[in-house]
Design goal:
Structural class: alpha/beta
Strand content: 15-25%
Helix content: 25-40%
Largest sheet: 9 strands, mixed
Order of helices and strands: EHEHEEEEEHEEHEHEHHEHEH
Number of domains: 1
CATH class: Alpha Beta
CATH architecture: 3-Layer(aba) Sandwich
Oligomer: single chain
CATH topology: Rossmann fold
CATH superfamily: Glycogen Phosphorylase B
Radius of gyration: 17 Å
Number of helices: 9
């Protein structure tokens, strides 16, 4: 049976401009699929992604549910598109309130004030869509700070869901994607749900990039340094956190290294 790998990322080219992260978001899933693994790949449907040019269309059978964030209901819309040369389908998480604006995470150099709720919606939207698909991943690989809440949700909120057993492993890739203004100080309150204790989110007493990254690492089973230049404090934290990790890899071999890392994590049954 093929190993199933779920990619949750904040950038994929050609839908967004070429960056270190968007190139990995484009080529890593294809490479892992070519190495005989089954994949699903998710991306936020940011407003600057051209739906017509990229031939996005809504998947009615997956859309239609609402997610409650801070006592407000937000409709979850799922769209898909294909990267034909790679034979790869991309799922997009969409919502008019969060993703209709013509920018990704900043406008004129300033972060959007609701980026915390946008990240919550994206993280939960991915998990709920995977549930609707009835597709249980063996590896969940998160890329970038916008996905930093996925490990927490999987380990604390969805831990009793029958679709997800304890054999899956979560990997968090850290990039040089720091934001300057901390997220809303209410973020810890917004992610507390049934089964979550205040102690589970106490490490988010600060909501800056470094604290959010450490929070993601805390609930992950493995860490990858996706950029050559990363905040030194986070590099030190990764090296001392007693979790399997990969240092930055060369472009011509990183897919094989990541693939081996997936296999070793599954084999070792490392737990948080």
């Amino acid at each position: 049976m093929k190993l199933k790998v779920l990619f949750v990322t904040q950038e994929i080219t050609p839908y967004l401009p070429e960056t270190e992260m968007s190139l990995i978001g484009r080529h890593l899933p294809q490479g892992i699929q070519e190495r005989n693994k089954e994949i699903r790949t998710f991306l936020p449907k940011f407003g600057n992604i051209n739906e017509r040019r990229n031939q996005l269309h809504e998947v009615i059978r997956l859309s239609g549910m609402n997610l409650i964030i801070n006592d407000t209901d937000y409709p979850l819309v799922i769209k898909v598109a294909s990267i034909q040369p790679a034979r790869m389908q991309i799922y997009f998480i969409d919502n008019e309130d969060f993703f209709s604006r013509k920018h990704t995470l900043t406008e004129k150099g300033k972060e959007f004030s609701d980026n915390d709720e946008r990240a919550i919606f994206y993280s939960r939207g991915v998990i709920e869509t995977v549930k609707k698909l009835g597709w249980a991943p063996d590896i969940i690989h998160c890329h970038g700070w916008f996905t930093a809440l996925v490990p927490f949700y999987m380990k604390k909120v969805y831990c009793e869901d029958p679709l997800f057993d304890n054999d899956y492993r979560i990997i968090y890739s850290v990039y040089n994607d720091e934001f300057s203004k901390p997220l809303s100080s209410d973020l810890p309150k917004k992610i507390i749900e049934d089964g979550v204790c205040p102690e589970d989110v106490e490490s988010l007493n600060s909501t800056d990039w470094e604290s959010l990254t450490k929070f993601a690492i805390k609930y992950s089973d493995g860490v990858i340094m996706g950029s050559n230049e990363i905040n030194p404090g986070i590099v030190e934290h990764i090296e001392c956190c007693n979790k399997p990790y990969l240092k930055p890899q060369e472009q011509d071999c990183y897919i094989d290294k990541y693939n081996d890392f997936y296999d070793k994590l599954i084999e070792s049954k490392v737990t948080v």
